[in-house]
Amino acid sequence: MDQYCILGRIGEGAHGIVFKAKHVETGEIVALKKVALRRLEDGIPNQALREIKSLQEIEDNQYVVQLKAVFPHGMGFVLAFEFMLSDLAEVVRHAQRPLAPAQVKSYLQMLLKGVTFCHANNIVHRDLKPANLLISASGQLKIADFGLARIFSPDGSRLYTHQVATRWYRAPELLYGARQYDQSVDLWAVGCIMGELLNGSPLFPGENDIEQLCCVLRILGTPSPQVWPEITELPDYKKISFKEQAPVPLEEVLPDASPQALDLLGHFLLYPPHQRIAASQALLHQYFFTAPLPAHPSELPVPQRPGGPVPKSHPGPPHIHDFHVDRPLEESLLNPELIRPFIPEGLVTGRQKAHLSQASLDGQPSGGDPWPVD
Question: Is position 127 annotated as part of the catalytic site?
Answer without folding.
Answer: yes
